[in-house]
Specification:
With 325 residues, this protein is mostly beta strands. It contains four helices and 19 strands. The protein has one domain: Beta-galactosidase, Chain A, domain 5 (Distorted Sandwich). It binds 6-O-phosphono-alpha-D-glucopyranose (G6P). InterPro entries: Aldose_1/G6P_1-epimerase, G6P_1-epimerase, Gal_mutarotase_sf_dom, GH-type_carb-bd.
Length: 325
């Protein structure tokens, strides 16, 4: 425990292990027993546990851990495309690539790493990738675990290309829940959304919190910085905070679609919900030499959370770019 004391030595709090394919994965720990595991395959967070050792992210029992296919669950990085709106494979190539660890990460803003164990992963296009998507970039993902167990993901995309390029981005986040019928998502009331089940038709959410009784696949537009997922049965609330990511995708495949997915159990739709901080409706345009940042902070706590608290968090986050991080 000594190395957690006065000055946080982030290198001492991380450990590199291998997955089934011999690909490195990084284990982050905090002194209270919380942990997170990030795979170099896809830069995917494959596990996030609280101090009690409970897994907070969903992973399918039928997930395949076979490179280059991404694993069903955790937090996937969707870049530079989301879904099938583009010429690339579904959700872009970042989730299928092998990333590398940056052994000497830049300091950035001290709030990002102070008191946290963190790792920086990098993705740069290979010659082969450039044939598919001819824009040179560097994608840096910093994943950090705070003393209170919060998990933060910060992605920076830098244009090292001679001309501007456009991209979409999402943190495709599979949260573990006890029973989807007992889950409520708060913060998306009255927003416009694209219904991905009806050719991205533009619709408007009603006044009530979101509940689930059938397949859902929606992109909520210009959503607030803070959204909450309440799991009544487990008495747990996830708070999702985001910056630089205007949209929120909510997905549950429900029964019929689950049966069509080879790497997903028939009943597993009951124990997951995807709520993704994303930039989808308006592609990000990045000029040469410029950098874009998209941040996500996940908190998992006891269900004492109420709508007024969410309102207050959003009110405070509204005019401040640095409030959340
Ligand atoms: O099966 P995948 O390619 O991982 O995609 C899983 C899901 O991701 C997102 O939630 C999309 O909105 C859905 O349309 C898609 O079905």
């Amino acid at each position: 425990m000594g190395h957690y004391a006065a000055v946080w030595d982030h290198k001492a709090a991380i450990k590199i292990t291998k997955d089934w394919n011999g690909i490195d994965q990084v284990l982050l720990r905090n002194p209270h027993g919380a942990s997170a595991k990030i795979s170099l395959h896809g830069g995917q967070v494959v596990s996030w546990r609280n101090a009690q050792g409970e897994e907070l992210l969903f992973t399918s029992n039928k997930a395949t851990f076979k490179h280059p296919k991404s694993m069903r669950g955790g937090i996937q990085i969707c870049y530079p495309q989301f879904g099938d709106c583009g010429l690339l494979d579904q959700h872009g190539f970042a989730r299928n690539k092998i990333w590398v660890i940056d052994e000497n990460p830049p300091p950035f803003n001290s709030k990002e790493s102070l008191g946290k164990s963190f790792v920086d992963l990098l993705l740069k296009p290979s010659e082969e990738d450039l044939k598919q998507w001819p824009y040179s970039f560097e994608l840096r993902l910093r994943v950090s675990l705070a003393l209170d167990g919060d998990l933060t993901l910060i992605s920076r995309v830098r244009n090292i290309n001679g001309k501007p390029f456009r991209f979409l981005f999402a943190y495709h986040t599979y949260l573990a829940v006890s029973d989807i019928s007992e889950v409520r998502v708060e913060g998306l009331e009255t927003l416009d959304y694209l219904d991905n089940l009806s050719k991205r038709k533009l619709l408007t959410e009603q006044g009530d919190a979101l509940t689930f009784e059938s397949e859902m696949d929606r992109t909520y537009l210009r959503s607030p910085k803070v959204v909450a997922v309440l799991d009544h049965e487990r008495k747990r609330t996830y708070v999702i905070r985001k910056e630089g990511l205007p949209d929120t995708v909510v997905w549950n495949p429900w029964e019929k679609k689950s049966k069509t997915m080879a790497d997903f159990g028939d009943d597993e739709y009951k124990s997951m919900i995807c709520v993704d901080g994303a930039a989808i409706e308006r592609p990000i345009t990045l000029k040469p030499g410029k950098e874009w940042t998209g941040k996500l902070v996940l908190t998992a706590g006891k269900s004492s959370f109420c709508f007024d608290q969410l309102e207050a968090l959003n009110y405070r986050a509204k005019d401040s770019d640095s409030y959340l991080f």
